[in-house]
Design a protein that fits this description.
Helices cover 47% and strands 12% of the residues. The chain is an alpha+beta fold and 525 residues long.
């Protein structure tokens, strides 16, 4: 779009009138330190009776933003900010080590020497664009990637470099580090505004759980039981859905082995970074109790006696002994990475020959419970998910929908017969049509399942149209259609300019009820 005329000009900024009648406000904000291009802050003000006044306000706001960035009370660089941020931030050690690794490998080499006052939207766009293209920042160079930096003789593991960009998950973590550090800089008085907030929002994660089928799970268990210790660990992962680090941390005094009252208590987890391991809190910093069935109780009792006899301790193991250990007395814990590697190797070799990881057993436990009709809140509690089941719903919505559809089928079989002469086909011809588009139906079914199981309660707000569009990878119109179908069913209330909310129990859209009544009367006649 080109400008037709300039309605007003100021020494440090300008307001341009576009052909559409809108006003474009532009402020010169210096030179980008990475690209060397001139950088401007811009804002478009829609046409209207108050457009000129709004444009003046926007110009003042952009000038203030530019001045806050230029006249900040610090000359610190990104490196200096990160040094202080990591020294003062309080997070779990595993998270901190991971963030420091991302900073060392990707943030510091590109932005480390850049002054904080020079960070702007264009700089951040260039930064993320480089990381999306190649994590090694090769800039198109061709070279050999060696298996080690030490002197060696090259073999098939030393290959020509292939560009591989960082995943969206890694980019979101990098943005979390920069954004968190920028917030601290504002709080410390280093800056007037957080420069890292100018980055474009990164795409949200799309959950895609891929649990083994029931048949695959049976074959995995059969293969694992060839080794008693390994089979017990894999079985417990299937039954409880516990994380690998939580299984490694289990001790015998955290298990109640009574028929009809078997309970496993998750209190801690084993973390690993390289070759170093340590015991820490669970991911949600809360302990949880998981009920186990009688068959699993019997297996654990037999396994406990086996471990005690192997260690020469009679029939009892010490309470503090680890259930899964490389030493007979249970004095040491297994390394989580070793557990993952062994599981992947077992699945990859004959007779299985599958590409799987042990975390999928956690998905298997969740999906089997939901498919069996267990409510999402209970499943989330067993898995240790936060948010009262919201995390469970987000990751396993497909299986919530399956359970909801099965519930609808059970209810349909128990309903009274339709009046004589009324057939479902007549209802369809009367205008109550099922959509062929499975995309919007899937969204509607998932939300209906969340409402029916109580995860979304009366008055709760539904996700926005944009959030649903991103989560399900559909168009905005498809997401809007899903909300509209729930409104027509009387499940949600939609108001102009506001997010849809769950409707009170028993209320329906009156206009929709009237239409359905008229159509049924027509069909009967």
């Amino acid at each position: 779009m080109t400008s037709a005329s300039k309605s007003q000009r100021k020494p440090r900024g300008e307001i341009e009138r576009l052909r559409s009648g809108s006003l474009r406000v532009r402020v010169y904000a210096g030179v980008d330190p990475v690209s060397g291009k001139r950088h401007r802050l811009e804002e478009i003000v829609p046409a209207g009776p108050h457009a000129e006044a709004d444009a003046e306000k926007a110009l003042t706001r952009l000038l203030a933003q530019r001045d806050e960035q230029r006249n900040a009370r610090t000359r610190a660089t990104v490196n200096q900010l990160l040094d202080k941020y990591f020294a003062l931030t309080r997070v779990q050690e595993t998270t901190k080590v991971n963030y420091e690794s991302l900073a060392r490998l990707h943030i510091r080499p590109l932005l480390g020497t850049v002054p904080l006052t020079k960070i702007n939207g264009e700089t951040l766009d260039s930064f993320y664009n480089v990381l999306r293209k190649c994590r090694a920042r090769c800039q198109g160079r061709k070279y050999i990637e060696h298996r080690t930096e030490r002197p060696h003789e090259c073999n098939e593991k030393c290959k020509p470099h292939e560009c591989k960009g960082l995943s969206d998950g890694s980019l979101r973590k990098i943005h979390a580090v920069l954004s968190g550090a920028g917030k601290r800089a504002v709080r410390w008085g280093w800056l007037g505004v957080n420069p890292f907030s100018q980055a474009d929002p990164l795409p949200a994660a799309r959950p895609n759980p891929q649990p083994p089928t029931a048949d695959q799970a049976a074959k995995i268990a059969t293969e694992a039981w060839k080794d008693l210790d390994w089979g017990m660990l894999v079985w417990l992962a299937m039954v409880t859905g516990a994380r690998r680090g939580e299984l490694c941390a289990l001790t015998w005094d955290r298990v109640t082995l009574k028929p009809g009252a078997g309970v496993l208590v998750i209190k801690s987890s084993i973390a690993q970074r390289g070759g170093r391991t340590w015991e820490k809190d669970t991911k949600t910093h809360q302990q949880r109790r998981i009920t186990i069935d009688d068959a699993t109780v019997s297996l654990l009792l037999a396994y406990k006696r086996h471990c005690a006899q192997r260690a020469g301790l009679g029939d009892e193991m010490p309470g503090k002994a680890r259930i899964f250990s490389n030493t007979p007395d249970g004095s040491t814990w297994l390394k989580p990475d070793s557990v993952s590697q062994r599981y992947a190797r077992m699945c990859a070799r004959k007779p299985l020959k599958w590409d799987m990881n042990i975390h999928q057993l956690r998905h298997y436990s969740a999906t089997e419970l939901i498919s069996a009709g267990v409510d999402v809140t209970t499943v989330g509690g067993r898995l240790g998910h936060g948010g009262g089941g919201s995390t469970t719903l987000r990751f396993y919505s497909a299986w919530v929908a399956e359970a909801d559809q099965r519930a609808a089928g059970v209810l349909s079989a128990r309903l009274p017969e339709l009046p004589m002469g009324l057939r479902p086909e007549q209802e369809l011809r009367a205008g109550i049509e099922l959509a062929d588009d499975a995309l919007y139906q899937r969204i509607a079914i998932d939300l209906r399942g969340a409402i029916s199981c109580g995860l979304l309660k009366v008055g709760d707000r539904l996700p926005t149209i944009a959030e649903l569009s991103t989560r399900y990878a559909v168009s905005l119109n498809t997401a809007q259609r899903a909300i509209k179908s729930l409104e027509q069913a009387g499940l949600v209330v939609v108001s102009r300019g506001r997010r849809a909310t769950v409707a009170p129990v028993g209320t329906e859209n009156s206009a929709n009820v009237t239409r359905l009544s008229e159509r049924r009367q027509t069909a009967l006649s």
